[in-house]
Design a protein that fits this description.
CATH superfamily of the domain at 94-235: Membrane associated eicosanoid/glutathione metabolism-like domain
Strand content: under 5%
CATH topology of the domain at 94-235: Four Helix Bundle (Hemerythrin (Met), subunit A)
Largest sheet: none
Structural class: mainly alpha
Number of helices: 8
Radius of gyration: 52 Å
Helix content: over 70%
CATH class of the domain at 94-235: Mainly Alpha
Length: 237
């Protein structure tokens, strides 16, 4: 049996003492608990990560969700203006004289419709029809005839077509040449008043030269616009 030094014997005795044995066992238990906690934490993270992959994503609250699309029958109608209105608005912004031209043109066309209605009423009152079937319906074939008053109305209507249709073309082109708005409105107003006076003089059988003066008065702005349109066209050749 080997001889043990007094220092080594004392060290072994201290290691076998109850205090040292208890502290060593407590340290081992603490180390085992730490290992269990680490393993449990890793397993928990893996299980949570797998659950997050397998489970659907949580829905946001109702206040954060985008509104569901409405069905077709519940949608409000489109309030956008039509293309024709947009183009007309752009044209009026480009040409300040265009609204006055459109107003005079509409009034002149209405006047032509009125003359056509007056012609029909005069035919019925005078019983002077141009077609045999109309005469048979209103009394007999003897009423298929001409009448001076009906012919007067027809001549007034033809004169309107001979002068108003050229005005519609000249006035439209003239409006986009950039004329002074006051001068352009004066052109349109003079033509409208001249044609109105001409129709009244024609149908009312006013004394000459009332009708001729009204005709010449209406032709003056047309001649002016025609010259300006021709000048601008020739200048850009």
């Amino acid at each position: 049996m080997e001889h043990m030094s007094p220092g080594t014997d004392a060290h072994q005795q201290r290691a076998r003492s109850p205090d040292n044995v208890g502290s060593r066992q407590g340290f081992n238990r603490a180390r085992g608990a730490v290992v269990v906690v680490v393993v449990w934490g890793g397993a928990s993270r893996l299980s949570l990560r797998g659950w997050a992959v397998l489970s659907p994503a949580p829905r946001p609250p109702a206040c954060c969700r985008p509104p569901a699309p409405l069905p077709a029958h519940a949608r409000a109608p489109c309030r956008c203006p039509p293309l024709s209105c947009v183009l007309l608005g752009l044209a009026m912004d480009t040409s300040p004289a265009l609204p006055a031209f459109l107003l005079c043109s509409a009034l002149l066309l209405i006047k032509m419709y009125v003359v056509a209605v007056i012609t029909g009423q005069v035919r019925l009152r005078k019983k002077a029809f141009a077609n045999p079937e109309d005469a048979l319906r209103h009394g007999g074939p003897q009423y298929c005839r001409s009448d001076p008053d009906v012919e007067r109305c027809l001549r007034a209507h033809r004169n309107d077509m001979e002068t108003i249709y050229p005005f519609l073309f000249l006035g439209l082109v003239y409006s986009f040449l950039g004329p002074d708005p006051v001068v352009a409105r004066l052109h349109f107003l003079i033509f409208f008043l001249g044609r109105l006076a001409h129709t009244v003089a024609y149908l009312g059988k006013l004394r000459a030269p009332t009708r001729s003066l009204a005709y010449v008065l209406a032709q003056l702005p047309c001649a002016s616009m025609a010259l300006q349109v021709a000048w601008e066209a020739a200048r850009h050749l």
